[in-house]
Amino acid sequence: MKIEVLYFDGCPNHEPTVERLEGVLREEGVTAEIMKVNVPDHATSQAVRFLGSPTIRVDELDIEPSARSRHDYGMTCRTYIENGRREGRPSRNLIRAAIKDALPRDSSASECCEPATRPSTASAEKSNRSGLLVASSVVAAVLASFCCILPIVFALTGFTIMGASAAFAEWRAYLLTLTSGLLGLGFYFAYRPAKEDCGPDGVCARPLPKRSGRLMLWLATAAVILFAAFPYFSGAVAEFLLSQGNSATTQPGQERPKLQHASIAIQGMDCASCATAIENKLKAVPGVREAKVSFEQGTAEVDYETGSASIEQLEKAVQKAGYRVLSKS
Q1: For the packed helices 211-228 and 121-144, what is the interaxial angle rounded to 10 degrees?
Q2: Residue 42 — very low, low, confident or very high, per pLDDT cuts 50/70/90?
Q3: What are residue 34's phi and psi, to 5 degrees?
Q4: Nearest to 37 by CA among 20, 57, 22
Q5: Is 47 exposed, middle or buried (0-12, 13-18, 19+ CB in 10 A)?
Q6: What is the DSSP letter of 196?
Q7: Given CA atoms 176, 182, 184, 190 in this order, what sign does their dihedral have?
Q8: Which of 54, 172, 177, 199 has its CA 20 to 30 A from that of 91?
Q9: CA-to-CA distance for 303 and 306, rounded, in angstroms?
């Protein structure tokens, strides 16, 4: 890189300009010799195309692009516009821009070996977009399985479902469709080829690595599959979390109470966990010796002690679990 500073004796801005130029070169990590050219008279100013003192040229080009077409050469003090004011020396930004413009031509080795330092904002935006899609897909999958998650949660906490399970069951197909779409978009943004993000200075940003983002995407996909399939193994989970023994026991020597059997038809069960939640409520009724609820048949078979429990109590237990009793026998 060839750098020249043209000046005439007595110019007060000559040395400060050289010092500013040297500072910018250090900041940019550029090693270059500064040639100081003293212009002694008007004839020389015409010969060297002197636009005034001080003038800086980088590779024969004036650092001020707008001055490269000027021809008003002569022995004058030169001024530069900085922040709307005229100054007697060029700004650091003007010097830096000229040096950067010259670097690709003189520093091909640096270009091939030094990584670009400009941040890739486009890659960051794509990464954030992919992460948002992945998170949304997991949330949608969880909501799609709420019809079978809620019975367990409410049974454990003692609250009543109040039809929430049925509401989520109606939306399950739509939520699963939304989940698939969001995951598909997540894979698209994670695996599509990255475009080069090049700025006006000719420096191209290095795309952000996608390895961690893709790993999170696959982990999220596994979580989505797990939640989407939850209704198929919810019965085993509910059985493990909610199972309890019969509420009534017979002491030795005590007369065995008379048992009565009730068959109750139930509406609103969406999966096996619903049956287990109802079963748990029925077994909590004092006097119930055995309770079996079938999700497939939509019925509850209950053995209870006459005088300790009644069919009305059994119906209320089903209703407290958040389901509707259709008939009894």
Answers
A1: 10
A2: very high
A3: -100, 120
A4: 57
A5: exposed
A6: P
A7: negative
A8: 199
A9: 9
> What's the rounded Cα separation, in Å, for the pair 298 and 208?
54
What is the spatial distance between Cα 248 and Cα 139, in angstroms, rounded to a whole number? 42
* Beta strands at 324-328 and 259-267: parallel, antiparallel or unpaired: antiparallel
Average pLDDT of 205-219?
Answer: 66
Shortest CA distance to 144 belongs to which of 107, 170, 182? 170
* CA atoms 213, 216, 218, 224: torsion sign: negative
Q: Which two tokens stand for residue 9?
A: 């004796």
Question: How far, in Å, CA of 228 to CA of 226, rounded?
Answer: 6
Please state at what angle helix 146-157 crosses helix 121-144, rounded to 10 degrees. Answer: 70
Q: How many residues does the chain have?
A: 329
Q: Distance between CA 233 and CA 94 in Å, rounded?
A: 69
Neighbouring residues of 32: CB distance < 8 A, sequence distance ≥ 6: 1, 2, 3, 25
Q: What is the pLDDT of residues 143-181, one digit of tens each?
A: 656 556 656 666 666 555 545 555 566 666 777 787 777
| Residues facing residue 300 across a β-bridge | 264, 293
Distance of alpha carbon 97 from alpha carbon 23, whole angstroms: 14
Give the C-alpha separation, 220 to 130, whole Å.
12
Residues 5, 18 contacting (CB under 8 angstroms): yes
Radius of gyration for the alpha carbons in the chain, expressed in angstroms and rounded: 41
> In the block, which residue shows the tokens 């090049």?
198
Question: Which amino acid type is present at position 157?
Answer: T
264, β-bridge pairs: 300, 328
